Amino acid sequence: MSHVLGSDVAVASDDEESGADQKYSITVEKNQILYTLLVDNIGNVSVLLDKGMDNVPPNLDPQFRNKASGVYRLKGELLAVFEVDKALELLIEFG
Description:
By secondary structure, this protein is α+β, with helices and mostly antiparallel strands.
């Protein structure tokens, strides 16, 4: 098991699993409570520059619009950007 620790984020993966079946967990702390986000698949990985981020469009669903920091307009897709704290608020609200 490998761990990468940051100031308030930990990432763990199981080295024994094959790349196709590999699962990740990201643990964050908010208000002295630990939350673990499970990632079962990593799709396309892209480097996106801050200057390419647009404001959140007004027609985005209000529950997401109020939590998103911005969006990237990709080929045929809209990628919403959420700060960890705001994403946790969204998950707690609907969890």
